[in-house]
Amino acid sequence: MWERLQRFNALPRPAKALFLRAVLLLPFLAVSLRLRGFQATKRWLQKFPSHLKDSPAAPDCEIIVKLTVRMILAAERFFPIHSSCLERSMALWWLLGRQGIASQLRIGVRKDGEKFAAHAWVEREGIAIGESEAPHLHYAAFAEEMSGDAT
Questions:
Q1: How many CB atoms within 10 Å of residue 147?
Q2: How far is CA 44 from CA 38, 66, 104, in A?
Q3: Each residue of 92-115: pLDDT tens digit?
Q4: Residues 6+ apart with CB under 8 A from 122
Q5: I need a labelling partner for 110 at 20 to 30 A (CA). Which of 6, 52, 57, 94 fits?
Q6: Are 113 and 67 in contact (CB under 8 A)?
Q7: Where exactly are the structural domains of the chain?
Q8: What is the pLDDT of residues 45-66, one digit of tens each?
Q9: Are 124 and 117 in contact (CB under 8 A)?
Q10: From residue 4, how far is each of 10, 61, 81, 84, 91 by CA, in Å?
Q11: CA–CA separation, 105 vs 130, rounded Å?
Q12: C-beta separation of 143 from 104 below 8 A
């Protein structure tokens, strides 16, 4: 526990803020998705638009995106319950949008024999972000109207 606190204290202030937001957001999303469903949860998140008028400059965007992904993954490790790809993706999509970075929440499906599978991810400028590999390439993505666009 002490080691975790020391690692947290060593983070720069923006990283601490992102981590704390993610720590609160991930369990909220888990409960909301189960009780209210995807569309109602997404609509609720969209009630809180970006507080920035302009998107950060391109080099700053990349740094912010990487930091946001890192803090969501750190927040997920903080809890004993594993987050789903949808919960992580919604958190990433919303936190990026709050920082003025446009992204798209994507949801895809595939059928392998009799088995049905779904996956959620976030794209920025058509490129998946926050994915350790490329599992999203194996899924047929729904239209953006179905999954969500951070505007």
A1: 22
A2: 10, 25, 16
A3: 999 999 999 999 999 988 888 888
A4: 89, 92, 93, 96, 103, 104, 105, 106, 128, 129, 130
A5: 94
A6: no
A7: 12-147
A8: 999 877 666 677 777 899 999 9
A9: no
A10: 10, 27, 18, 23, 22
A11: 12
A12: no
Q: Please name the residue that has the structure tokens 């920035």.
A: 52
- In three-state form (DSSP H/G/I as H, E/B as E, the rest C), the secondary structure along the chain is CHHHHHHHHHCCHHHHHHHHHHHHHHHHHHHHHHHCCHHHHHHHHHCCCCCCCCCCCHHHHHHHHHHHHHHHHHHHHHCCCCCCHHHHHHHHHHHHHHCCCCCEEEEEEEEECCEEEEEEEEEECCEEECCCCCHHHHCEECCHHHHCECC
C-beta pairs of 11-18 under 8 Å, 24+ apart in sequence? 14/67, 15/67, 15/70, 15/71, 18/67, 18/68, 18/71, 18/72, 18/95
Residue 120, token pair as written in the block: 């959620």
